[in-house]
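Duplicate of #3305? Posting structure anyway:
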């Protein structure tokens, strides 16, 4: 099974927002899409706004091993 994880990185501090994990600090449930986060959501580490985040490609460990 191919799992497509979407990870977003905070360009200010390098914090990774993993949609599968959510964000405990801001009470964001696991499996919450980044795009559906509230507009006032901020980076739990440095307080940067959503605008400071960029989507990054993340390959599941299993996919890496197949190469
Ligand atoms: Zn940050």
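Output from current build:
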């Amino acid at each position: 099974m191919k799992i497509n994880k979407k990870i977003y990185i905070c360009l200010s501090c390098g914090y990774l927002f993993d949609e599968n994990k959510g964000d405990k600090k801001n009470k964001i449930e696991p499996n919450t899409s980044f795009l559906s986060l509230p507009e006032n959501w901020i980076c739990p580490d440095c307080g940067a706004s959503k605008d400071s985040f960029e989507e990054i490609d993340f390959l599941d460990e299993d996919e890496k091993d197949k190469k």
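Confirmed duplicate; merging threads. The domain at 7-66 is CATH 2.20.28.10 (Rubrerythrin, domain 2). The chain has a mean pLDDT of 88.
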